[in-house]
Amino acid sequence: MMTTRAIDSNYYLDSQKTRTPSATLDKDDFLQILMVQLQNQDPTSPMDDSKFVDQMTTFTNLEQVMNISEAVQTIAGKQTSMSPVLQYSHMIDKQVTYNEYDEKTDEVTDTITSKVKAVTQKDGYAVLELANGKSIYADAVTKVSNE
After folding, report:
1. What is the rounded distance in angstroms from the CA atom of residue 65 to the CA atom of residue 114?
2. What gap in Å lies between CA 139 and CA 147, rounded to an integer?
């Protein structure tokens, strides 16, 4: 009498490819699904043209949204590293008020208002060049006005 042993599942399960599912699909995944769908359709009743056009439209919209998202991320990244001159250029021709301090006591000695003529940069900080001939750092401004 011949006996058969049960097949040990470890032999064939170990050789199986494991796939890690992803929570999101990208445009390549979408295109791959569409291609598999086209390859495996029934030749006697092919996919309806309108469904195919709908899927291609969805794919195009997905690609455009992803491109817009990348562009917005690029712009947002550049804004954080924007030049101080550009950040403060809107202050040109505005009246700014700032305090002058006594160097020894660090007390306010005067409050001065002057018009901004130009914006420059020094050591990574914006410097406002004023009509009164002085230059101050932009963070020293206590008030900005049109007059």
Report:
1. 47
2. 20
Residues 69 and 103 both lie in one domain:
no
Task: Give the domain range for residue 122.
Answer: 84-145
Co-location of 76 and 95 in the same domain: no
* Residue 3 in domain: no
The pLDDT tens digits along the chain (147 residues) read 566 666 666 665 556 566 677 767 676 777 788 788 778 877 777 767 777 778 778 878 888 888 899 888 887 776 656 678 888 888 899 999 999 988 888 888 999 999 999 999 898 889 999 999 999 999 999 999 987
Whole-model pTM? 0.45
